[in-house]
Amino acid sequence: MKILIIGSKGMLGHDLARVFSGHELVLWDKDEIDITYEDQVLRKVKEEKPDVIINSAAYNDVDGCEEHFELANKVNGYAVGYLAKAAKEVGAVLVHYSTDYVFEGIKKEGYKEDDQPNPQSKYAESKYLGEQELSKNTDRFYLIRTSRLFGQPAMAVGAKKSFVDKMLELSKNRDTLEVVDEEYSNPTYTPDLAKQTKYIIENKLSFGIYHVINEGACTWYEFTQEIFKIKSIDVKLVSVSSDRFPRPAKRPKYSVLVNTKLEPMRDWKEALQEYLKLEF
After folding, report:
1. Rounded to 10 degrees, what is the CA torsion of 59, 61, 64, 66?
2. What pLDDT sits at residue 155?
3. How do residues 135-151 score in pLDDT, each as one tens digit?
4. What's the number of domains the chain is made of?
5. Which among 32, 100, 183, 245 would be 20 to 30 A from 86, CA to CA?
6. What percent of the chain is predicted at pLDDT more than 70?
7. CATH code of residue 55
8. Which residue pairs from 160-169 have beta carbons closer than 8 angstroms and sit at least 24 positions apart in sequence?
9. Catalytic residue set
10. For residues 214 and 148, what is the distance between their CA atoms, to the nearest angstrom?
C-alpha cells in the first residue's frame, strides 16, 4: 500500500511514519507541498497516485487563529477540501484529523461522533470548515477527532510544543506554578493515535467519523499534577480559574470525546508514564 503522509515532520507525523514503515511511504512537509494551493495539491497527488493520504498538517495556534483567521481557514479548512478532491481524483482514501474544540463544551458527559459541532473560536471554526470540506468533496474518508496531543517533539521548525513539554520546561525555573483547573478533555499520546489510525486503515473500517483518544479526562491542573508526580518534580501547583489567564480564543469547558466505534485505548496516565520514561 502506498501511503502519503502530509505534515510528516510534526509530532503526530513522525509517529505515523514509524507505524506505517512496512508500507511504501511518501513523506511531505512544508518543503514538499503547500496544501493551500489547489492546483499544486492536485498536480502532486496525481504524480504520486497514493492509495491512502493521511493529513496531519494543521495551523494549531488556537489564539493565533483569532488574529490570522484567513490563514487558519486556508490551512485547516479549504486545504482539506483540495486534498479531498485530489484523493477522489486518484481513488485514494483520505484520513484527516480534527479536534474536540469543534464542540461547544457544555456536555459534561462528553461528545459522541454524531453530536453536532458548535465551534466557539476561530480555530474551532476553521477546523469545522475542514470537516465540512472533507465530507463535501469525497465519500472515502476517515475523519479522526482527537485532543491534547503529546509525544516526542516535532522535527518541523517553529513547531508548537506539547503541554507536557511546556510544563517540564517551566518546572526548571519555577518554585510555584499556577495552572488552570478547568477545561476537561482527553490527553492523547501520539504513538497510540498513530497505531489506532493504522488499525482503522488496515482493517478497512467503515468510512466516517471516529473519536480516537486515550481513555480518561482531566483538567490542565490535573494533567500537570500527574506529570510532576511521575517525574518527582517538587514544584508547588496552584489551582486557578481560566480567568487568571485571559486569552483571545474561547476554550470549551467540557470537550471530552466519547469513543463509541472502537475498542478503547489505554488510560492517558499509563500513556503519559511511558512517554516520560523515554530519553530523547
Report:
1. 80
2. 87
3. 999 999 999 999 999 99
4. 1
5. 100
6. 99
7. 3.40.50.720
8. 160/60, 160/61, 162/11, 163/187, 163/220, 163/223, 164/223, 164/227, 164/272, 164/275, 164/276, 167/223, 167/224, 167/227, 167/228, 168/227, 168/231, 168/233
9. 123
10. 10
pTM of this prediction exceeds 0.70: yes
Cβ-contact 102, 94 below 8 angstroms: no
What's the domain range around 68?
Answer: 1-280
pLDDT digits (tens, 9 = 90+) for 216-226: 999 999 999 99
